[in-house]
Specification:
Mannitol-specific EII, Chain A, CBS-domain, 2 domains, five-stranded mixed sheet, three-stranded mixed sheet, 13 helices, 10 strands, 37% helix
Amino acid sequence: MYLHELLPRERIVVPLEAATLQGALGSLVDKLAADEVVREPQEFLRLLTTTKLRDLVAIGPYVALPHLRTDLVDRLVVMLGVAPRPLQAEGTSSEIAPEIVVLVLAPPGSATLYLQTVAALARLFRQPGVVERIRGAQSADEIVELPAFRELKVQPRLTVRDIMTQRVPSVAPDTPVRDAVDLMIRRQLRALPVVGEKDEVLGIISEWDVMRALLPHIPRASGAESGEAVAVPGHLKVREIMSRSVLCISEELGVDEAANTMINKDVEQFPVVSEGRLTGFLTRGDIIRKLFGR
């Protein structure tokens, strides 16, 4: 299947007139509602607002790719809009002010095709020159006639790259454990990869590693005062407590193979590498939420 079959000309809006990312999504949803593709558009917009676009892929500084599975659509739907100016993204998880917005919607049962489509779109926007051509497009016709757009296939095999967490936080071996713990709490992470100067994976620091290292510092019930805080020793470095034996996987590995390895090795998360460099992170939660979640 080719991407242009899932994203026909009538699903491309140029220009997409909006000031904010939420406003742009509202315009795209209104068009889908007018075409009777989305049921209850107001409920759908409320859902987008309450989730704050948790599943949003940012590709470079210009492309936002929010995607969602919902009962409010009966089939996979893709829409693309090109705004004439950067969109403000307050109230969302986006760290960029995008100009290109691609919305991918699917019913809960379409997990594989949904993720394969998101992955194909991400590949499209990473091709040299494609983002610049789309940003400069004056019509939908200019976009659908791009060779990169017309020739891109939705791959039948789901890989680790398609569902891994990208832009994953990492720490250096000499990072204070106190800073690593603060980062894990702030980002709600169960583990952090430890990397060297060339982004090579040197180890991993997990909740288990932290608990094991800090157990002696947890006050005993007989001596603890109510509300007393537990201080992480300032001199303690990540290299002193991290697990050095860490199993990394390739981003080209099939998701089924990665899941089997997790089960057989009893591993909760994998750093993902390409050509020896850290490119992402895959957890059991990623697989469950993205394949079986709603």
